[in-house]
Amino acid sequence: MSSLKAFLNQNVKVITSDGRLFLGTLEGFDQTTNVVLSNALERAFYPDEPKRDLELGAFIIRGDNVVCLGPYDEDEENNIDYSTVFADKLKSTKNAL
Amino acid sequence: MLFFSFFKTLVDKEIRVEFKNGVEITGTLKSIDQYLNLKLDNIKTDVDKYPHLIAVRSLFIRGSMIRYIHLNPVDVDTSLLQDAARREAIATGGDKFAGR
């Protein structure tokens, strides 16, 4: 089984079907991939200005909207100079063609 | 359940997954479940284009968000798979799918 159990209480990044990125601590999940994050942030990248973070607090993402979810390395993350990272918005998974 | 069993034979092989949003991720298949949710290790993506997954090493991917899975041909026995698909079609759908 590809359970999310191994990722519990770790800091994770979640990409959702509308192309947004959330960071937070994985507090819980169920078999439909509903996930609960604590200390959640939404991180937005822009093509011409540095990324921005929006603090959200506790956050539930309904399973159908989860594209992928993975724990990230805290040290590696903290060493990244995000002032030079630019990117376009991710595409939605719906009607993307 | 055929493809669930099929993907179980690909555990520890390197695969490339293409999401419905166009993003491609390469990694080692670590586990798979009945929904074809995948877990990949040592993932690689085009970080310059998509910095979203910077510092992420292992990744859970929801099966419903996958468009394609690219496999190395040497990992797949296509004639065996075709045979198994036929056998499953006969077992679940009767003779009408087996071209008889």
From TrEMBL, chain A:
UniProt GO molecular function: mRNA binding
Any single GO BP term: mRNA splicing, via spliceosome
GO cellular component: precatalytic spliceosome; U4/U6 x U5 tri-snRNP complex; U6 snRNP
Function: Plays role in pre-mRNA splicing as component of the U4/U6-U5 tri-snRNP complex that is involved in spliceosome assembly, and as component of the precatalytic spliceosome (spliceosome B complex). The heptameric LSM2-8 complex binds specifically to the 3'-terminal U-tract of U6 snRNA.
Name this protein carries in UniProt: LSM2-LSM8 complex subunit LSM8
Lineage: superkingdom: Eukaryota
SUPFAM superfamilies the record matches: Sm-like ribonucleoproteins
Record note on quaternary structure: LSm subunits form a heteromer with a doughnut shape.
Organism: Ambrosiozyma monospora (Yeast)
UniProt similarity note: Belongs to the snRNP Sm proteins family.
Keyword RNA-binding: yes
Domain Sm: from-to ranges: 1-75
SMART domains: Sm
Keyword line: mRNA processing, mRNA splicing, Nucleus, Ribonucleoprotein, RNA-binding, Spliceosome
Localization in the cell: Nucleus
Membrane-spanning ranges: none
Gene name of the encoded protein: LSM8
Main localisation: nucleus
Automatic annotation (TrEMBL), chain B:
Annotated Sm domain residues: 2-75
Entry keyword Ligase: no
Domain of life: Eukaryota
Entry keyword annotation includes Ribonucleoprotein: yes
Location within or outside the cell: Nucleus
GO function term, MF aspect, one: RNA binding
Chief place of localization: nucleus
Stored Gene3D superfamilies: 2.30.30.100
Record-level GO cellular component terms: catalytic step 2 spliceosome; Lsm1-7-Pat1 complex; P-body; precatalytic spliceosome; U4/U6 x U5 tri-snRNP complex; U6 snRNP
One Gene Ontology biological process: mRNA splicing, via spliceosome
Keywords of this entry: mRNA processing, mRNA splicing, Nucleus, Ribonucleoprotein, RNA-binding, Spliceosome
Family to which the UniProt record says this protein belongs: Belongs to the snRNP Sm proteins family.
Protein name: Unnamed protein product
Organism for this UniProt entry: Ambrosiozyma monospora
